[in-house]
Design goal:
mainly alpha, 0% strand
Amino acid sequence: MLQRSTGARKGHRTVLDTFISFTAALSNVMTFGDAVETCKLGGESTAKLMGRATFVPDTGNLPPGPGAMGLAFLTEKLIKGLAWEAEGV
């Protein structure tokens, strides 16, 4: 649905690099933990993509995209929170 509303696609160095990886992993009946790891890898992959948003100079040594890593961080903390709750803590 998001891809119908925006021109951003996987590989465009946006949060969609993590979101698409995460949702694809979930729809392939992977575990939630596997989907979280896939999401993190998608976020980290944005560091290897050429260029960034037009306002960020490309020095060839950029960190992963902040939006992409923000979603990866959120899903990682979500799974830790769910595990914590399941333990009855």
